[in-house]
Amino acid sequence: MSKSYFTTTRLAATWVSALAGTLFCWTSASLSASANKQLTRDRALNRVANRTESEPWAVELNSISASEAKVEGAQGLGTKGVQRASSNSTLTNDGPTVELDSILGISETPSMSPTGPRFSPPRTDQAPNIQPLENLDDQAAPPGLNVEPGNYPINPYLSLAMQQELDNLVGRFESAFFRAASANQVSELGASSHDPTLRASAAESDMGGLASEIIRHPVLAEAQKLILDWPELIEQRAYGEARQRWLAVRQALWDNFPIDQPFAQPEIRAIWLDRGAIVQAGSRRQLAEIFDRLAEAGINTVFFETVNAGYPIYPSRVAPQQNPLTRHWDPLKEAVALAHERNIELHAWVWAFAAGNQLHNTILNLPTTYPGPLINSHPDWAAYDNQGNLIPHGQTKPFLDPANPEVRNYLLRLLAEMVSNYDLDGIQLDYIRYPFQDPGANRTYGYGIAARQQFMRMTGVDPIELSPRRDPLAIESEQRRQRYLWERWTDFRIEQINTFVAEASRLVKRQRPDIVMSAAVFAHSEHERLQKLQQDWETWAEQGDIDWIVLMSYARDTNRLEQLVHPWLVENDYGSTLVLPGIRLLNLSQSATVDQVQALRDLPTGGYALFAVANLTSGLQTILNRTQGQSAADSPALIPQREPFQVASARFLALQQEWNWLLENHQLWMDQQSLERWTAEITGIKQNLVDLANDPSATRLAQTRSSLSQLQVMLGEGFIDIRAASSRDYRLRSWRNRLITIERLLTYGEHRLL
């Protein structure tokens, strides 16, 4: 930031400071109801206040997940990643040009007006002398458990983690096998055919067929032997052997997943169809080929990139210009028709506050300084960091100021246009946040003209003068004041995002009550998101503004994926809002992808989202075709968001089939009295779910919920003996999680249908 700007800003701040008391009193007396709401974000402030001072503001960069993981897609033309355009691009410079000074060169002195202070955008003549913040948009979470071969020591913590991961992997392997084996099993449990005196020792010699094959599978046998040998290996410090056997067993389990047969259940199977793949298609015929592939793979929901870097891919009357790469056709119109022909839902994926992309500029042969068509046309719509940069150092995207009424009005009109003109099934908000920041290093963002004006009217203080850092030279009362004001500034920015999400949801639902509103969000801790991104998606979910929270839980191994999603799937419940984890396909092996999908199926979630079409390989395509595609046995026509009660019934049927198969093959035991009670409970739940699906009502829903709760209690009573290679805890936990998923589908259906 230039010295002249600092001088003029501080002169204005000095003048304001002299009148601070008068201005603050006037502000307090004249705030509107909406402004008061913005000032009283007690809930979010309490979250921050309850954190310990020892909690770091900045986590290690290599522990950040892949957030929006913007892959530039096929031949470098996509968006969620960092691949650049291919060298043989034939694009010409047919887009608009821009002078840098027209964007950043306004330098009028701030002045006061009857409506509050007027500010010009910050200007910087040279980059400040700071280390760039790594572009976290492009990061994937590193492996949660990175085991390498060699004789390196295995400490007690790593030993326990390796044991636990091995048990979990065995559990996921068995879950897939049990489901595949029981897919054609009858669902009715037969209490009369069960021998209550049967025990594992007697059963081992009497097993046959697929049950025997699974229990005696050489891979499971080797895994069980390693689990038994593990304590001795560690005690004897045989670290090299332990590592070698652990890696070999993991690979063998991956290689033996039943990927040649169906084992999926009805679920939301979403995928992001990125702009690069759309541009590469270039016509309805080739776009149809993509949708054919997705239908064959059992995908039932597509997040179709509709607004990217400030450009819509369709001819818009609201936006300044259509994306130059799609001006010859309307991909959105064709995609809606193609999706619906294949019983796939089409959700428009929309960049909200990110208004440009330097990588996209390269594809269009535009200067890297070009801020996108919106900020080019409306420089006062831009936000800046506290150093006066339009784009934070190390990042690639300029952002709009969410506090600017004109920005909000523009985005709302754009959403209204899409919903009015296209038969969309959903809207997904992406970049619904501020850019990455590091408050601990005093690198923050959000200093648009409108935001600074509004905050100064509210508090009498220009936020550009505030710092998240404690000033050790200030007296204690001044430190408390600065801390309070900084929290108010953070809270102010959080509220800009929250209120926009609420407004967008109300607008869309007024026009189309049936449409699904979703948001692509980070899976990081609440505290980290509030401080670094101002992304408070829990509030959106709890208030019912969003139907789906789609977690960008991109991770390089299943261990880290589970770490990312566990707090939001297991430890929290968001009522009628479904939480849908995301898996990033880029640089993820087919085996690891199957493993991550199965991990999510064993957790309480109704499905998953894959990022992205540009990274859907032919090998993975084949696996999906066989395990969940059109030939799968899970009634692929059922789509959870359309038919939540029917899907809940189908998912419970799958549990019944698995339990009955285990009983018949002597892998599940209980005494006769418990079995009769168990059978009666399950039969009643099945009938309740069928009745609810056929004739939804509040009474039937209450009855079904009550019986499901009782079954959950029964699963925790300890009367079930399970014959499995995985731990009993894992098997019972996976069943309870599947029951929780059914309960959440019922809540979702209540909100949507009753």
Task: List the keywords.
single chain; 754 residues; alpha/beta; two-stranded antiparallel sheet; 27 helices; 48% helix; 8% strand; globular; disordered N terminus
Say how many strands there are. Answer: 14
Low-confidence stretches: 1-118, 123-135, 191-213
Strand order of the largest sheet: 4-5-7-8-9-10-11-12
Mean pLDDT, to the nearest integer, reads: 82
What is the first-to-last residue Cα distance?
Answer: 56 Å
Rounded to the nearest angstrom, the radius of gyration is: 28 Å
Tell me about the biggest sheet?
8 strands, parallel, barrel
User: What's the helical proportion of residues?
Assistant: 40-55%
Overall outline: globular
Bin the strand percentage.
5-15%
The helix count comes to: 27
Which class best fits the helix and strand makeup?
alpha/beta
What does this structure look like?
Helix 22 links the parallel strand 11 (578-584) and strand 12. This protein is 48% helix and 8% strand. It contains 27 helices and 14 strands. Mean pLDDT is 82; it is low at 1-118, 123-135 and 191-213. The strands form three sheets. The protein has an eight-stranded parallel β-barrel with strand order 4-5-7-8-9-10-11-12, surrounded by six helices. With 754 residues, it is an alpha/beta fold. The protein is globular.
